[in-house]
Specification:
There is one protein chain. This protein has 291 residues and is α/β, with parallel strands linked by helices. The protein has 14 helices and nine strands. A six-stranded parallel β-sheet has the order 3-2-1-4-5-6, sandwiched between helices. A three-stranded mixed β-sheet has the order 7-8-9. Strand 8 (131-135), helix 8 (139-152) and strand 9 form a beta-alpha-beta unit. The longest helix has 30 residues, at 164-193. The chain is globular and about 65 Å long. The model has no long low-confidence stretch (mean pLDDT 97).
């Protein structure tokens, strides 16, 4: 398939090469051109602009936030009018439910197809093509895109024909991860203050009550107190919790734990830790405990 790919952050630069390896022709674009050129040696073409990337039957976006997506499609990027009729836009970014609904309407009015397909997995999972993809949109369009999903992920979950349903599932999942990190951080602070060795504690947790990969991944980061370099920045965690709360407000669904985690992320960013891994919530918990 011929694919345009916009957004080469930590996730995008790991995902796009897997499309090339699977035999798809991929034109990559990033505001920092050097990131796109770095993938040329792996077989990708370099798109000169957002418009250039949009001149393909399928466009994938993996951008940081609502503002970046809006700029690409409704702002100076002019991506919406650059996509041809019948083209497919796969948005793999973690964006708001409201923006996803706006994109769905705009693409529909332009005679284009739109699929929301955010992912679960850190950069190392993206590089290994082990992402979990949550997709929503027209059934036939998702089926058409499945070879692309197969090249980037280990499993695709389809949650309906309304694209923003996938975005809501993604935001709810990130809320659960953030809440887990908060609880892990508080628990580690408690046992560390009592003099219990954190790695021994981690072994107990992950061998008994909490054997899920997320506990092992984030528990190890917290036990090692290794919050840099970030696999997922705290500033992005704050963004996602804000979006989850906005969706909850629109649906009149109280989320008191999300409000607590939001304030702790905000404190971390205010204290200069926005570029640290979002598991740095545990560092805040330790500091509050006097550690």
């Amino acid at each position: 398939m011929e694919v345009g790919f916009i957004g080469l952050g930590q996730m995008g630069q790991a995902m796009a090469p897997n499309l090339v390896k699977a035999g798809h022709r991929v034109a990559v674009y990033n505001r920092t051109r050097a990131k796109a050129e770095a993938l040329a040696s792996q077989g990708a073409d370099v798109a000169e602009s957002v418009k250039d990337a949009c001149r393909h039957p399928v466009l994938i976006t993996m951008l940081a936030d609502d503002a970046a997506v809006e700029a690409a499609f409704f702002g100076k990027g002019d991506g919406l009018s650059s996509l041809g009729r019948g083209s497919v836009h796969i948005s793999m970014s973690t964006i708001s439910v409201a923006l996803s609904d706006r994109l769905a309407e705009a693409h529909r009015n332009a005679g284009q197809f739109y699929v929301a397909a955010p992912v679960f997995g850190r950069p190392e999972a993206a590089a290994a093509a082990k992402l979990f993809i949550v997709a929503a949109g027209p059934e036939k369009t998702i089926a058409h895109c499945q070879p692309l999903f197969d090249a980037m992920g280990q499993r695709t979950f389809v949650v309906g024909d309304k694209p923003s349903s996938a975005n809501l599932v993604k935001l709810s999942g990130n809320f659960l991860l953030a809440a887990m990190i908060e609880c892990l951080g508080e628990a580690f602070a408690l046992v560390r203050k009592a003099g219990i060795e954190p790695h021994a504690y981690l072994e107990i947790l992950t061998s008994t009550l909490f054997s899920a990969p997320a506990y092992k991944t984030y528990g190890t980061i917290i036990a090692n107190q290794q919050y840099e370099p970030a696999g997922f920045k705290m500033s992005l965690g704050l963004k996602d919790i804000r979006l989850a709360l906005a969706a909850a407000d629109a649906l009149a669904t109280p989320m008191p734990v999300a409000s607590l985690v939001h304030d702790h992320f905000l404190a971390g960013v205010a204290q200069g830790a926005g570029d640290s891994d979002w598991s740095g919530l545990a560092r805040l918990a330790a500091a509050n405990a006097g550690l």
